[in-house]
Amino acid sequence: MFLVQYSNMNTTPLNIDKIRKDFPVLHQEVNGYPLVYMDNAASAQKPQLVIDTISHYYSYEHSNIHRGVHHLSAEATVKYEAARKTIQEHINASFDHEVIFTKGTTDGINLIANGFRGILSSGDEVIISGLEHHSNIVPWQMLCEYTGATLRVIPINDIGEIILEEYESLVSERTKLVALNHVSNTLGTINPVKELIELAHKKGAPVLLDGAQALPHMKVDVQDLDCEFYAFSGHKLYGPTGIGVLYGKEEWLNKLPPYQGGGDMIKSVSFEKTTYNELPFKFEAGTPHIAGALGLKAALDYCNQPEIGFESIGQYEGELLDYAMKQFESEGLSGDMEFYGTSKNKASVISFLLKGVHPYDTGTILDKLGIAVRTGHHCTEPIMDRYEIPGTVRASFSFYNTFEEVDRLIEGLKRVKKMFG
Ligand code: C6P
Fold this sequence. Notes:
- This protein is an alpha/beta fold and 421 residues long.
- The chain has 2 domains: 7-30 and 309-420, Aspartate Aminotransferase, domain 1 (Alpha-Beta Complex); 51-303, 3-Layer(aba) Sandwich (Aspartate Aminotransferase, domain 2), CATH 3.40.640.
- The protein is built from 14 helices and 17 strands.
- The protein has helices at residues 16-21, 48-61, 71-91, 105-115, 138-147, 164-170, 193-202, 222-225, 250-255, 290-303, 310-330, 359-368, 381-387, 403-420; strands spanning 29-30, 33-34, 36-37, 99-102, 125-129, 150-154, 175-181, 207-210, 229-233, 244-248, 266-269, 274-276, 337-340, 349-354, 371-372, 374-376, 392-396.
- A 7-stranded mixed beta sheet has the order 4-10-9-8-7-5-6, sandwiched between helices.
- Helix 3 packs across helix 10 and helix 11 runs parallel beside helix 14.
- The longest helix has 21 residues, at 71-91.
- The two termini are 22 Å apart.
- The protein binds ligand C6P.
- Ligand C6P is lined by residues 41-42, 104-106, 133, 135-136, 181, 185, 210, 212-213, 233, 374, 378-379.
């Protein structure tokens, strides 16, 4: 199985062997086999730098922030704010106060949906697409239920792309917000977001992008995109769980009310009147996930090293994707597989079914062979309904995966096919 060394198929400057050494979790056996981790779209693994940063913070640096005059508190505050700055620079936000720390993508979207409660009313419309994760559906349904506004959904075509003509006919003066994912977690489709944003702006509608699956694979520039809001999660970006980011244009963040009340989000409090703090603190009530912010900064610092970089990451993952698709074909598996999401413009996510085999069975057998994939609806039930299937098997690649691991996946699928064939 491992007769051929595929490392020379990597045309990027990435040194994958070296990178893999930085991820301790990868070096273990599962069910007697070396782990092949291909569930990166659910959550990515952490480089040692992130683990060490968090450990160091709790060992020597922990204190609450923005509160104490003492040394540890001042130092922790400086580091927390430095993390915000790193994120601002990474996504090219105009100001660091446009970067709000959240719990994750879900939290960021809910923050905005909550803020729009005072803006929307009956007759207004919110547009989403048929590609959305439940996190970018349910908060808008709740908002519409609360305000009497209407939710409109852009349908997708057979290969898992938003149908642009349908979008053009949906977006109108009634549209008060467009909320779309940048990259689909289930199908991998990379949406033409610049074009979609431009169309929304022509009708005066602001746009929120769910970037949970984009940030891990590509460099995102929020000013270039010109979106009003952009939400993402730390844990998919090689950082910790429980930390995420909501970017918002200053004017919009100033316009929206706070999401939660409590400490740190106020300037002054009396029983008669509370004055809210300025950005970004207005949206960060309570003690935040300080270690998480530091860990997320470490993850970005790691990925942005000159010898790594998101351009190479995206390119290498694309090579893994192309290789997998070619090997499915040449190893005689394609005929037994149904692929979902075959847009030319897609991230390194392969959603498929082995014909006649329930995705859960495929996932369970792959796990017995040490291969981690996700099975099920991937929190996108409307996509499953669109294709009239209960779920898929999803292999999602990261830049620490290898061509040899793709071979292991293929060997595993052959085993499944044999067992059910
Ligand atoms: N998708 C997946 O396996 P949180 O849970 O808040 O970090 O991210 C939610 C979320 C929002 N949008 C998209 C496009 C996502 O992919 C996710 C998380 C994981 O696909 C877990 S369901």
